[in-house]
Each structure stands twice: as structure tokens, then as C-alpha cells.
């Protein structure tokens, strides 16, 4: 039932007998730093802070013509050890009543990955035959400049927040930050489009080479190639910040994205494909899946490492700035809007 609701939430209603993969796994934290090789390649620092998971070849340039993740990375924080991709999102901050900021940590998804050192859960979903990404492929979803539900829902689908009453809470998603304290933290879900133009590994806005399918799950003729649905689920540990006495006097919610968004509508995610060889294609072709409540990938074709091994892959930050403790401004001094 839970799987069904997750899949429906993902817009991927699975009909019996249809090829379908539901590969789900943990990617522990690799590094938290102000780099963004897709949107601000070469910039150190980039404008806002990110939490990054995946292979340790992540760096500030990642020029697709020279940067080959599977041959450059020596470890990955994801449990499929052939996945040297990088996945990242902005980070959350708590703004206390006195106006100072504190970074919010991620924590291991309580559905199977409590031993993960933070990071996020990654899914690759398919409904029918899909074509895996090509080396050098990258994309983003969401727009950090958005501050309204109208903007967000006109352009994107399936970017939302869940106020966790318990780790099991599903449903009740919102497009903006939850307005009340969430006893078990805040889950952020980011799902990418599932149709590709079949030609471009990237595009100037990092988005227009992919598109959403129509309501019958058919890709448009401009983007005819069905690709796996990449889906991030991040558990943010807002639990230390649930004391209403520290929330704003006017009763508004206190969380801000690292780019200064106090609404949540600027929710976005970044992806750089980096699986070894045809490992992802094999996993999709073989309809691989995962058990929902334990760290178990049902996919004999994939090499898998333990959460403990995944936790050992870490990258030292290459940006010199403090991101911990109470601060008078966000890293990058992004204004709150
Ligand atoms: C990033 O990695 C690539 C490929 O390994 C390397 O050529 C480049 O020098 C690195 N960039 C930085 C700034 O470390
Ligand atoms: C601001 O508020 C936080 C949370 O109550 C507190 O821990 C911190 O010490 C305060 N900082 C200042 C400068 O008052």
C-alpha cells in the first residue's frame, strides 16, 4: 500500500505485466559546500550552499567533455557501488527569532537507512521500457527564483514538502514549507521529468532537453525518449528547531533555503549522470526493485556496498568558509525574500 501511494505520488501508476523498475537506495552525505558545477561551473564559491551525494569526483568544474565520473571517482556514498553520479540540492537553514541562522542537517531515511550518514534517498523509476542516460548527461529541475505556488505549478510537477508526523507519514504534501513544527522532520521530494530529446546531454537552461509526459504517460514528439524517473527524497532534521518560542513572533515558519527563499517555492535539484558502463540500463531492463523497509536492493546485476562502506566515502570541502554554528547571514549573504 505504501509502495502504491509512493508510486502514485511519483506519477507512475504501475499496471500489472508492464515493465517497471522501482530501484530505491541510500546515498550518504558526500560534502556540504558552496559549489555548483552545472549552474556555476568553475565558481568557488558558488552563490548558495548545497548538500551533495554520490561519487567523490564531484568538483567545481565537471566539464562534461573532460570529466568522466566513473573513471575519476574512487568511491561513492550510494549503495550501488557502480553509481558514481552526483545528486545535490540546496540546504535548509533555521532562522531564529533573534535573526541568526543555523544550518539544518540531513539524516538517514527512517525507512531502511537510519545508519546512513545523512544524505538522501535516490529512486530510479520506470513504467515501460526506458533508455538510461548517456555519459555527460546532466539536468536540473525547479527554479530558485520562484516564490509563489502559481509559478511553481505552472512549470513543474512533483516538487514538494511533507511535514513528517512520524517517519512513515506520506500524503499531505505542500508546495511551500510546512507552517507548523513537524515532529519527525521535513521530507523534501524532488522528481525530475521523464522524457528526453534524444540528442542533447545538457541545454543552456539545463532543463529544456527534458520534458514531462502527458497525462497518458506518453512523451511529446519533441522529447520522444522515455528516461528513468530520477527522484530524490531528503529527510531534513528540523527536530532540534521545533520550539515555537524560537519561531518568529508573527507565527510564520522559520525555515529558509540556502538561496534565501523563505517560501519554499524555489525548491530545486541537480543531477549529473555517472553510472559505470551499462549498469543503470541493465537494472532498468531487469525491472530491479528494492525492499521498502530495509536496506535491500533486489537486483543481482548490480554490485552493492553496505551503508557503512557508503558512509566512508567523504570529500573534504574545497570552499573555505564556516557553515556551522549560529551565523548572522547565510553563506553567500543571500538576502531573505
Ligand atoms: C575537477 O576534476 C577534473 C577531472 O578529474 C580535473 O581535470 C579538474 O582539474 C578538477 N578541477 C578542480 C578545480 O579540482
Ligand atoms: C539566537 O537564538 C538562538 C536560538 O534561540 C540562540 O541559540 C543564540 O544563542 C542566539 N544568538 C544571539 C546572538 O542571541
List keywords for this structure.
5-stranded antiparallel β-sheet, 5 helices, mainly beta, binds 2-acetamido-2-deoxy-beta-D-glucopyranose, DUF1996 domain-containing protein, 337 residues
Radius of gyration: 19 Å
Domain module count = 1
Question: Between the first and last Cα atoms, what is the distance in angstroms?
Answer: 39 Å
Would you tell me the overall average pLDDT?
94
Main sheet record = 6 strands, antiparallel
> Shape from CA axes?
globular
How helical, in percent, are the residues? under 10%
Low-confidence stretches: 1-16
- Kindly state the number of beta strands: 19
H/E order of the elements? HEEEHEEEEEEHEEEEEEEEHEEH
The molecules bound to the chains, other than polymers, are: 2-acetamido-2-deoxy-beta-D-glucopyranose
Q: Give the class from helix and strand content and strand pairing.
A: mainly beta
How would you characterize the overall build of this protein?
With 337 residues, this protein is mostly beta strands. The model is unreliable at 1-16 (pLDDT under 50). The termini are far apart. A hairpin with a 5-residue loop joins strand 5 (92-95) and strand 6. The protein has one domain. The relative contact order is 0.25. The chain is 9% helix and 24% strand. Strands 1, 7, 8, 10, 11 and 15 form a six-stranded antiparallel beta sheet that branches. A five-stranded antiparallel beta sheet has the order 2-3-4-17-9, with no helix packed on it. Strands 6-5-16 form a three-stranded antiparallel beta sheet, with no helix packed on it. It contains five helices and 19 strands. It binds 2-acetamido-2-deoxy-beta-D-glucopyranose (2 copies).
Amino acid at each position: 500500500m505504501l509502495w502504491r501511494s509512493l508510486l502514485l505520488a511519483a506519477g507512475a501508476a504501475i499496471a500489472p505485466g508492464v515493465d517497471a523498475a522501482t530501484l530505491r537506495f541510500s546515498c550518504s552525505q558526500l560534502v556540504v559546500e558552496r559549489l555548483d558545477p552545472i549552474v556555476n561551473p568553475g565558481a568557488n564559491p558558488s552563490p548558495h550552499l548545497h548538500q551533495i551525494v554520490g561519487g567523490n569526483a564531484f568538483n567545481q568544474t565537471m566539464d562534461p567533455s573532460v570529466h568522466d565520473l566513473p573513471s575519476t571517482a574512487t568511491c561513492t556514498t550510494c549503495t550501488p557501488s557502480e553509481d558514481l553520479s552526483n545528486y545535490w540540492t540546496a540546504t535548509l537553514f533555521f532562522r531564529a527569532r533573534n535573526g541568526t541562522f543555523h544550518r539544518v542537517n540531513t539524516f538517514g531515511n527512517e525507512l531502511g537507512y537510519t545508519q546512513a550518514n545523512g544524505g538522501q534517498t535516490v529512486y530510479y523509476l520506470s513504467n515501460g521500457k526506458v533508455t538510461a542516460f548517456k555519459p555527460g548527461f546532466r539536468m536540473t529541475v525547479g527554479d530558485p527564483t520562484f516564490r509563489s505556488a502559481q509559478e511553481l505549478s505552472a512549470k513543474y510537477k512533483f516538487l514538494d514538502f511533507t511535514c513528517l508526523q512520524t517517519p512513515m507519514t506520506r500524503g499531505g504534501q505542500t508546495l511551500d514549507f510546512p507552517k507548523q513544527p513537524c515532529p519527525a522532520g521535513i521530507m523534501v521530494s524532488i522528481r525530475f521529468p521523464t522524457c528526453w530529446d534524444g540528442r542533447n546531454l545538457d541545454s543552456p537552461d539545463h532543463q529544456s532537453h527534458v520534458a514531462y509526459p502527458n497525462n497518458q504517460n506518453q512523451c511529446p514528439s519533441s522529447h520522444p525518449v522515455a528516461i528513468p524517473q530520477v527522484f530524490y527524497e531528503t529527510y531534513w532534521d528540523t527536530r532540534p528547531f521545533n520550539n515555537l518560542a524560537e519561531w518568529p513572533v508573527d507565527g510564520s515558519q522559520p525555515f529558509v533555503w540556502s538561496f534565501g527563499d523563505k517560501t519554499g517555492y524555489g525548491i530545486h535539484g541537480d543531477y549529473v549522470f555517472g553510472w559505470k558502463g551499462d549498469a543503470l540500463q541493465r537494472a532498468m531492463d531487469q525491472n530491479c526493485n528494492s525492499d521498502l523497509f530495509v536496506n535491500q536492493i533486489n537486483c543481482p546485476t548490480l554490485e552493492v556496498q553496505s551503508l557503512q562502506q557508503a558512509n566512508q566515502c567523504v570529500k573534504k570541502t574545497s570552499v573555505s568558509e564556516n557553515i556551522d554554528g549560529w551565523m548572522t547571514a547565510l553563506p553567500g549573504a543571500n538576502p531573505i525574500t
